[in-house]
Amino acid sequence: MSLISLALSRGDLVETRNLIADNWTGGLEPRQLAVTDPSDGGLVSNVPDAGAADAKAAVDAAQAAFNAWRGAPARDRAAVLKRWNDVIVAHQDDLGRLISREQGKPLAEGRGEVLYAASYVEWFAEQATRTNGEVIPSPFSNKRILSVREPVGVVAVITPWNFPAAMIARKIAPALAAGCTVVAKPAEDTPLTALALVKLAQEAGVPPGVINIVTASRERAAGVVDVWLADDRVRKISFTGSTPVGKHLARQSASTLKKVSLELGGNAPFIVFADADIDAAVEGLMAAKFRNGGQTCVCPNRVYVHELVHDAFVAKLAARVGALKVGPASDSTSQIGPMINERAVQKIERHVRDAVSQGARIVVGGERIRKPDSPQAAYFSPTVLVDATPSMACSCEETFGPVVAVARFRDESEVVARANATPFGLAAYFYTDSPARIWRVAEALECGIVGINEGVLAAEAAPFGGVKESGYGREGSVHGLDDYQQIKYLCQGGVR
């Protein structure tokens, strides 16, 4: 084992307080939330376990700061975001180590996530100055018609644990670019990265009250978010997480008609046609599936391989998967880290047991990994299953772990129908060398994101989001800014 230290060179980035207005505070109640390292179960730090009073104070601060921030010239807001980008990049190593410590992903992935997060900050810094309105040809000679874009107001941002830097940046950056102010609650498993990013935003010159962040446990999170849902000063909810929680947020937002962006669960198909480059397809699946140990919303969950190339594909895939190194981020050779917690491992185990009980065969892996030096760690071996069927839990639910379930198919129409036979519609992937098939299949798949002969999809310039029960709204791209704005129509009479 080649050991590396996950200690930060700048220790004060491990912030353990909430930020409300310009004050770092321990919270209005003396409750604490423990943040643990999933590689060994050890305590990393304690943060406030906030409640309703903290949530209201955050909205008070955001509302108080809104008029000044929305009134700032767009280039001034852009300049603040550019400085934030610069300090994020300057602290890439420390932030990467913090991500690896509280989330468990290998350090190379942690560092990579920091640059991915910064790319959204930089992108929306540039977009801040491009929120143009329109001059609309008037049907009346004595009137002029214009439309302008305005910020929606205070935005509540609720982020998941799997990408603790990227998700908070992907939501806060467009909000600030549009002129909105923010109240944020990061995931209970990984709050430290979000707190560090907000600390750097403060150092970059984000004015007091423009970003406010509170941390809360799983048990008390609803009490925090319910305050924001009920408060009519909060004009938008942006959430990434499970579909059941997203549905609850949508229902509760209806009482005040908030704008809502939801990036929810997925069940991504990965299709390998007979004419595909098999080596390229294996590489694409490895990149798409095993990033962050399979704990991503767009990772392939159902793999369909044409019967003519099935055996060759599985043999190549199994060789690659079996060679993956599982271990903590403190081991520089680790490629797959621990799962986020014990519940995650139990779900993976349930999926594998269910698949085997229904006739699936384990080609490689299939077991929890016990490490004597880390008995509390949540490791699971990278796994390949074959003979998967639609009735298996791994075909119906997100496994959210390093498990590939492979099924055979015979023809295009059959596999497209199977790919679409899910309530979800976030991402899909397919490999083929046929130009005609590329267009047919891309148009037929019911999802918001399609990877065509490509396993790595996310980019700050691309619109990220799903359809059906995978949610609505888009993050990234020019469309990502639209979700934080509203259009106002101006009609001026008496021109002639």
Structure description:
The chain has 496 residues and is α/β, with parallel strands linked by helices. It has 2 domains: 274 residues, Aldehyde Dehydrogenase, Chain A, domain 1 (3-Layer(aba) Sandwich), CATH 3.40.605.10; 184 residues, Aldehyde Dehydrogenase, Chain A, domain 2 (3-Layer(aba) Sandwich). 39% of the residues lie in helices and 23% in strands. It contains 15 helices and 24 strands. The strands form 7 sheets. Strands 14-17-18-13-12-20-21 form a 7-stranded mixed β-sheet, sandwiched between helices. Strands 9-8-7-10-11-23 form a 6-stranded mixed β-sheet, sandwiched between helices. A hairpin with a 2-residue loop joins strand 1 and strand 2. Helix 2 runs antiparallel to helix 4 and helix 2 packs antiparallel against helix 5. The mean pLDDT is 96.
SSE arrangement:
Blueprint: E1 18-20, E2 23-25, E3 32-36, E4 43-48, H1 52-71, H2 74-90, H3 92-103, H4 107-127, E5 134-136, E6 144-151, E7 154-158, H5 166-178, E8 181-185, H6 191-203, E9 211-213, H7 218-230, E10 234-240, H8 243-253, E11 259-263, E12 268-272, H9 278-290, E13 300-306, H10 310-322, H11 342-357, E14 361-364, E15 368-371, E16 374-380, E17 383-386, H12 393-396, E18 403-409, H13 412-420, E19 424-425, E20 427-431, H14 435-444, E21 449-452, E22 467-468, E23 471-472, H15 477-482, E24 485-492
Parallel strand pairs: 7-8, 7-10, 8-9, 10-11, 12-13, 12-20, 13-18, 17-18, 20-21
Antiparallel strand pairs: 1-2, 3-4, 5-6, 6-24, 11-23, 14-17, 15-16, 19-22
Protein name: Succinate-semialdehyde dehydrogenase/glutarate-semialdehyde dehydrogenase
GO biological process, one term: gamma-aminobutyric acid catabolic process
Pfam families: Aldedh
